[in-house]
């Protein structure tokens, strides 16, 4: 069945398959919708693409011009032809992976891509064989755009470019929420939960636990609890109680409500 396009939709072809998507959809998202696999490291459905890692390169033909673009940030357009698997795409992807392998030789996700695309030699001698950061910026975007705390950022330029806290010092604002770790594609962010605190090892920051106001158990980093209380004052009481006491409280209210209903 052919799909009609409207003002808010565009029709394009990807590897010969036609697809109609909402305007604003990226080529990567359109390809994924029809099951075409394009590798992507700095894309996350919540954050969108960053165009930073460049493994998602594809070839497009638009207005008679053929060129390479990063599909995670390139918008789908009416009449666009996309090719995800040409010799040129595969060659470029291998070259990008070789660069990533030199930058982050210990990153498992990069090693797997290297194996899959046959690019197992790093582009240059890695300066740190244990490095796992590809400088994709997902942690920076998560902390700045999603959590809106801005505890980590990029620092320096060129070969010295890094992500970290300002001056690589202990952060006064990091909530130890762990969102950056969840979205880091390479597993570079190390967190250790200790008896009294959560240690954000990669960010050189320790945040003590908050103790449940009912049972005294540690359950969330204290700064995160304060943050949640500010974000949602009506839920302030709820966030100061650990999940177990919350569940028990709910169960208790439920039992009381059932008893009252039986008495009526
Ligand atoms: S720590 Fe992870 S998320 Fe942050 S830039 Fe490095 S690879 Fe990307
Ligand atoms: S996923 Fe597109 S540049 Fe990283």
Quickly describe the structure.
The chain is 31% helix and 19% strand.
Question: Which secondary structure elements does this structure contain, and how are they paired or packed?
Answer:
Blueprint: E1 9-14, E2 17-22, H1 27-33, E3 57-62, E4 65-70, E5 81-83, H2 87-103, H3 108-117, H4 138-146, E6 153-155, E7 162-164, H5 179-183, E8 191-193, E9 197-200, E10 205-211, E11 218-221, H6 222-231, H7 236-239, H8 243-263
Parallel strand pairs: 1-5
Antiparallel strand pairs: 1-2, 3-4, 3-5, 6-7, 8-9, 9-10, 10-11
Helix pairs in contact: 2-3
Bound molecules: iron/sulfur cluster and FE2/S2 (inorganic) cluster (FES).
Description:
This protein has 264 residues and is α+β, with helices and mostly antiparallel strands. Among the domains are: 9-85, Roll (Ubiquitin-like (UB roll)), CATH 3.10.20; 175-249, no CATH class. Helices cover 31% and strands 19% of the residues. The chain contains 8 helices and 11 strands. The strands form 3 sheets. The protein has a 5-stranded mixed sheet, with helices on both faces. A 4-stranded antiparallel sheet has the order 8-9-10-11. Strand 8 and strand 9 form a beta hairpin. Helix 2 packs antiparallel against helix 3. It is globular, with a radius of gyration of 24 Å. The protein starts with 8 loop residues before the first strand and ends with a helix. 32% of the residues are buried. Bound molecules: iron/sulfur cluster (SF4) and FE2/S2 (inorganic) cluster. Residues 133-139, 163, 184, 186, 188-189 line the site of iron/sulfur cluster.
């Amino acid at each position: 069945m052919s799909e009609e396009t409207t003002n808010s939709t565009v029709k394009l072809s990807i590897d010969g398959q036609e697809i109609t998507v909402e305007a604003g959809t990226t080529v990567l998202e359109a390809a994924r919708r029809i099951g075409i696999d394009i590798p992507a490291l700095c894309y996350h459905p919540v954050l969108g693409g960053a165009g930073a890692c460049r493994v998602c390169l594809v070839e497009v033909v638009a207005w008679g011009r053929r060129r390479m673009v990063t599909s995670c940030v390139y918008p789908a357009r009416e009449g666009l032809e996309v090719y995800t698997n040409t010799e040129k795409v595969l060659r470029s992807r291998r070259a990008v992976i070789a660069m990533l392998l030199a930058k982050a030789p210990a990153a498992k996700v990069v090693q797997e891509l290297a194996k899959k695309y046959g690019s197992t030699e790093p582009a240059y001698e890695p300066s740190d064989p244990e490095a796992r950061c590809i400088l994709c910026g997902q942690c920076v975007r998560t902390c700045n755009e999603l959590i809106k705390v801005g505890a980590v950022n990029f620092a320096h330029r060129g070969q010295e470019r890094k992500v970290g806290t300002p001056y690589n010092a202990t952060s006064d604002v990091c909530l130890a929420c762990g969102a950056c770790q969840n979205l880091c594609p390479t597993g570079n962010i190390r967190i250790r939960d200790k008896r009294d605190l959560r240690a954000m090892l990669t960010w050189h920051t320790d945040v003590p636990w908050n103790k449940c106001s009912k049972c005294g158990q540690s359950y969330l980093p204290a700064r995160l609890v304060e943050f949640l209380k500010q974000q949602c004052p009506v839920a302030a009481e709820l966030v100061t109680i650990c999940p177990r006491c919350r569940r028990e409280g709910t169960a208790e209210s439920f039992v009381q409500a059932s008893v009252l209903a039986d008495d009526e």
